[in-house]
């Protein structure tokens, strides 16, 4: 077969003048490069989640230094000057196309505010609140972040690469190490994306909050797939296969499916994120009794927005509407005034999304603990 090598801008061999990360891993033995101090992060294996009870609250935009990290293996340190993105496959009208970092920076860019949230965010509550055993990282509610992402629409890259009319799937793949699970090498982290979503609002991002992507978040380029579970947003992008027939990977056959007694044997593919809420308070926070407090929290949804948030300070007997703070890009921050009586209290926050769908009281079980969207019961003590 005669593989034609083409470049997207017809500039073979262009050298990126962009930044080069030379940072060595902050400490040996951590697969994460940036510092993850214990007051701001909970480290869970190769991952680190944001702590909502940190003494340093985050605003609408999460700085890169505070953004959760989900690594299947370890953050690779890539060189933008030698980095290449290859677009390939029978879903292109011509041969494969190579994109350099310089090509990316020169193409028309877009900037979006979008959340990236792990499908397993909230997983630990299947166990602590519903008494169910599930497999996977025991996240609380900090496997989410919202950032401003700048990059090139994937649609632009695909069209310039010669997307065929009958292409159905794209398969983006990371440049991090192969993922080995239970002694089986599953290869590069990758997950197919339907062409319809790829052409809709997906970004090949090279900036996060106005700076080049940090190594942990995908430098030099990653996908940002708005509204979809985090695994769709492949970091350290190295290759995109475009296909006229449906594609598969272990990340849509073995992982990121809802399986269990309530589901058919094949399970249900997870794509879109659900709705969640969190109090920005320590677990079993201690508050001064008989004084007014302004409780802070936030709610978010993969369905596109939050309509209203109701909060109960008496474990669900009575509910009050929370007051919205800020514009609600990415998520909706809110506050609630409350004067607790002395004693133990259970707080609940329940968001209703833009379509009128409320968070449920319980989440139906699935074996891998994805999409925990039930109302979380948050204990508080007033003294
Ligand atoms: N190449 C690669 N891409 C990846 C992953 C990974 O391990 N390798 N993890 C995925 C998962 S499961 C999530 S939730 C998000 C997390 O993005 P973040 O680490 O920037 O927060 O990246 C996704 N993209
Ligand atoms: Mo994830």
TrEMBL record:
Residues 1-27 form the signal peptide. It comes from the Bacteria. One of its GO terms (biological process) is sulfur compound metabolic process. GO terms for molecular function: heme binding; molybdenum ion binding; molybdopterin cofactor binding; sulfite oxidase activity. PROSITE patterns: TAT (PS51318). Residues 72-251 form the Oxidoreductase molybdopterin-binding domain. This is Molybdopterin-binding oxidoreductase protein. Keywords: Metal-binding, Molybdenum, Oxidoreductase, Signal. InterPro entries: Ig_E-set, MoCF_OxRdtse_dimer, Mopterin_OxRdtase_euk, OxRdtase_Mopterin-bd_dom, OxRdtase_Mopterin-bd_sf, TAT_signal. Residues 290-371 form the Moybdenum cofactor oxidoreductase dimerisation domain. Its cofactor is Mo-molybdopterin. It holds the Pfam family Mo-co_dimer.
